Request: fold
Amino acid sequence: MRYSKWIVLAGSIALLSACATKNSDRISYKPAKNMKTKNMLSIPEIVNENIPGAPLLSQPIQIQGEIDEIMTEKHGYAYPALYDWNRDGKKDLLIGEFETGETGSFLQVHLNEGSNEIPKYSGKFEYALDTAGDTITAYYWCCIGLHPRFIDLTGDGIDDMVTGSYNPGIISMWEGTANGFKPVVEVEQEGDPRKYINGLELTDSKSLNYWNYTSAHFADFNGDGLYDLFVAGSGGLRVALNVGTKTKPKFGYRELLLDPEGNALVLMDQEVIDEHNKKYVGPISGDMKSYIEPIDWDGDGVLDLLATSTYSYKGQNPIEFFRGVKTPKGIRFEQRRPLFTAKNGSDRPFPGSATQVKVEDYNNDGVNDLLIGMSIISVQDYRIVDSLAWKPLDHFGLPRVGKDLGHGYGDPNRHEETCRMQKRFAGEDGKIPWFYQRPLDDQVRDIYSSRHRGYVYVMYGEKAESNATIKEYKEAKDFVLPDVYKLKTNQTASTTSGPVTVSLEATKDPNPYSTPMVIRAKFTMKAGWYLYADTKHNRENDYVVTTFEFEPCEGVSLAGDIATPEMFNPEGTAKFEGEELVFEQVFKMGRAFYGVKDKKVGVKITYQTCNQDMCLPPVTIRETIQF
Amino acid sequence: MSNKIKIFTMKKLKMVLFVGVVMMFLSTTVKAQGIEFFHGTYAEAQAKAKKEGKQLFMDFYTSWCGPCKVMAKKYFTLESVGKVYNKKFICLKIDAEKGEGPEIAKKYGVKVYPTLVFADSSGKEVKTIKGMQNEQQLLELAK
Reply:
């Protein structure tokens, strides 16, 4: 005991010393090649949730290569799926990856060297190519990777490969042919995922939250024979009906999936944070980094949902089950239940985070199995550390999967960040012995070398002993956006001059994931009247262009340029035309804002309007908006 | 230089000169086709109108007015319009934001551009028309 106290003391001193180390003394780390994971964890016995009709799941078994380890690196996501890639009649294992950038989110193809009943892989893989011979990849700059879904979206009898994306929230498709998958194209959607505005309500198809983190899956929701888009992410768990045709899909407005009470589906309990008077609230589903798979899991003939999240917070389960029920207003879903739990009573039946799930018949026995991609942190020499792997990431305050865990901490410019990480690795209370009971160099190397790495598991399904019967509700309530997600409109002012009425309003969005304040100028125009856009051409030709000047109080600053309506004739005399023209300026609020007594922004708008026959003199509006 | 080339060059030169003369003639003709605006003050225009027994035609415009530019370019330059307006009116273009323009615009209550004011030689308003007018409308107004 006395000895261990000395170790603790030495470790603490070492930790402090590390943070006092000069930049030039920093230890660099480069991952070694061909390393294999050490200390792979065994998963304690799981208990299936009692879901009549649902397959009984086996203990998770890691899918391993007979020669090499099956694993993803980069940012640690692993998106597994089965597809007969080489058309030899056997389903191969595909694993989608995530890498920041225009290329790098590739698709590992592990050819099945066994049979459909007993698949075998060597662990050696090639990255998937399209029919043009290019490596299949999609552009992701953050937080989500290539999650392949194989469905026939183009109605030609051959599966296409489809995936979602982070931002912009596009849907990418590689059309399947007899010879492979064509180069990527974008699937049409209602609205424009590239045009969004911070600070609008999440149900507004022009808002950032509506589009951000578009994870995708497909099933026929309304029974019209077309694949609909099931999408999760910042805007919650939603469905976008296919408003296109059997051969040319187009996904419509994303409607929230609801429970019979009219509530949005939730992956995690909400928690309102009140820090420095900021009333923040999380995404409507509780966790924006979410995925849903629509599947009739219990075989009752009604679609259910399997959903996953970051699995990084206390109270989250690796896989959530939402039972589909019939109501007079269509299919609704009962709120989440864990698909399985740990027999030992732990709230973490799986190690790691960022669960990815794909329903497949892995052993070809006619019963659904689960393929699971799991990200687990490993450190030096690909060593998994129990204390890191089994605790939710939130416990340590570590970056989530999809972020650069450990990467870049050798950069001298990030010395302070390294020190923060050291404290996190040691635990806030310094009670993580694996970290500090070792030499300082090892501690620092752990930080530099730490990575999220993705592993694939299978949980075999066994036919259920009991059948499920359809559950019907006599009533279903409509969705009402909870107050915490409603924008707070602080002030409106309206000025009419001739054919133009200008209304000013300021809104605050309580969502922490978007900038909290927007000033919106809405021009209501009588038919035929237009405004001149602020372009070089218009200024040079003496037109009075539409301008906005803002004088924010201390702590408030402009976030980017003002968003304008679409211009007509942008190359020539550019105009804004239409019955309603909305201009929106987003503001950032710094800490100083909360200390300012007179919270306000001065607004000056100048415009001049014409129709095809005449022009009216320029108008200047001055307003002060209080918050 | 051979004779052939010399003859060719001379022919070419003559052709260029001929085209030039034709162009000059045409440009003079085009200039003369539309309304010839008086380049003087409002008072001078009044005096000229009185002297020549004509009325005043005033086009109030601004530099930022798109329809004003269109009307000036498309309709004031027409021969049919010029023939009538040059005969009947002393025509004046008034920039409502420059020089004496604001004062005259105020006198005639101009708040929309373009505004066309027809007045007698003393400056008394006869009729005022707001907005761009096409050829037919301009000819009708001149009656």
User: Anything to note?
Assistant: Chain A has a mean pLDDT of 87.
